[in-house]
Write a structure and sequence with these properties.
With 423 residues, the protein is mainly alpha-helical. It is built from 15 helices and two strands. It has helices at 6-26, 30-38, 52-81, 84-101, 110-133, 135-138, 144-172, 181-204, 219-235, 238-267, 273-301, 303-323, 327-355, 362-391, 394-422; strands spanning 42-45, 48-51. Strands 1-2 form a two-stranded antiparallel ribbon.
Length: 423
């Protein structure tokens, strides 16, 4: 196959620019800091009692679980009926509107904050299934590392811009705003940015065609039929199967570190909000260089070899995080996270796109990838929150992530050996 035109590639990458503001502003910086600030350390929700940081992590894990359950059926339906762009539109609208709803979240509206955050997370994760599935449709195998890295780089660049706008609002407090209003306004801007720039993607991406011309059953039946077909293919592909197992375990650590880092800096190291936000901006800038550098290394040494090296670095980051004591330690470690954060996400996506067979069922195949990631996040976030709730020490939660990385490393090494045997 041939790689699509530059216009289509840039349109695809623009969705990263559009939706990454959720990942940075909502899950990484402003919202976790704001959530801890407007809630008491111990809160009641739905008749249960939680540490506020644990409730935050449980909420995110629950959202990922819902997406993991629904996305295989949705993506299979998108493949068979050729309407993946409509699903991408739906989840974009859901996520963007939910981010806008966070504008109304304050100390008196905990329920609104929790549910809007959960729906925004569902919108973000659900949309990624269909966005990622376009990669093998628009990029030839030899271009997938580069184009995947381009998407992540666009995402980091766009999210940093909105992050700086939000940071300026918090510092300047224009029009006589109090301390709360600039943060709430930033949540509103995230939703507008997301749905606004996504229109470029919707205009440029091609309309997918259904893989089944006649539908003998319901949409749900067709969905499960597609799932069985994909599972049957994955089961007999030893390298892909081992890669997915490794990806499942190391993603538990990667995603949890990324999502819990700001809460750790705020609650354990007691860093002020302005320094936390500035640190995250630096991480995003470093991550742009990291994504491109790791893509280049993969072209020279091979995807699986580079993944092995990056996972080893992540193990070192978790051990250092457990021992971290000062603000300077946090800043240095945050820089290290930035170098490997974008790289491992971009390389994982393009590695999967390379290992999967030539197929028209791209959304169904990427739903497996997405479900693997989302279930790993559920386990990672629940484990992190449970250990925090149980021991009241988030350092223990960070150390526990090393186990996930080690298991993931073992499977990626196994995938590399199998690949060498086959070749």
């Amino acid at each position: 196959m041939q790689t699509a035109s530059k216009k289509v590639i840039n349109g695809w990458a623009m969705y990263d620019w559009a939706n990454s503001v959720y990942n940075l502003v909502i899950t990484t910086t402003f919202f976790p800091i704001y959530f801890l600030a407007v809630t008491d350390e111990h809160v009641s929700f739905l008749g249960l009692h939680f540490v506020n940081s644990a409730l935050y992590n449980y909420t995110m894990a629950a959202a990922f679980l819902l997406v993991a359950i629904a996305s295989p059926i949705l993506s299979s339906i998108a493949d068979t009926r050729g309407n993946k762009k409509n699903f991408l539109r739906f989840f974009t609208l859901l996520g963007a509107v939910s981010c806008c709803a966070l504008y109304f979240f304050d100390k008196s509206t905990l329920g609104l904050g929790v549910f809007a955050f959960m729906l925004a997370t569902i919108g973000y994760c659900g949309g990624l299934v269909f966005y990622n599935s376009y990669l093998p449709e628009i990029a030839a195998p030899e271009d997938r590392d580069r184009i995947s890295a381009r998407g992540f780089s666009m995402g980091y660049t766009g999210s940093v811009l909105l992050q700086l706008i939000g940071f300026a609002l918090v510092v300047i407090k224009p029009f006589g705003m109090d301390d709360v209003k600039p943060v709430q306004l930033t949540f509103l801007l995230v939703g507008i940015w997301w749905i606004g720039f996504a229109q470029i993607t919707f205009a440029r991406l091609p309309t997918s065609k259904g893989t089944v011309s006649k539908h003998s059953g319901s949409t749900l039946t067709d969905g499960f039929t597609e799932l069985r077909k994909v599972y049957a293919q994955v089961k007999v592909m030893p390298v892909l199967k081992r890669f997915l197992r490794g990806f499942f375990f190391y993603s538990m650590g990667v995603q949890t570190v990324m999502m819990a880092a700001t809460i750790f800096g705020s609650k354990v190291l007691h860093l002020p909000a302005d320094k936390l936000i500035a640190t995250v901006v630096i991480i995003q800038v470093v991550a742009i260089a990291g994504a491109w550098s790791i893509a280049r290394l993969s072209g020279r040494f091979g995807n699986l070899r580079v993944l092995i090296a990056v996972v080893i670095i992540w193990i070192g980051i978790c051990i250092a995080g457990y021992k971290m004591q000062t603000a300077m330690h946090f800043y240095l470690l945050a820089t290290a996270v930035g170098l490997v954060m974008g790289g491992i996400q971009s390389l994982s996506r393009s590695t999967y796109a390379k290992l999967m067979p030539e197929t028209t069922d791209t959304a169904s195949f990427f739903s497996y990838y997405d479900v693997t990631e989302k279930l790993s996040i559920v386990i990672g976030m629940f484990s992190f929150a449970y250990i925090d709730d149980l021991t009241n020490d988030m350092r223990n939660s960070v150390l526990a992530l090393v186990v996930f990385f080690v298991i993931g490393l073992t499977w990626i090494i196994s995938a590399l050996r199998k690949q060498q045997q086959i070749s």
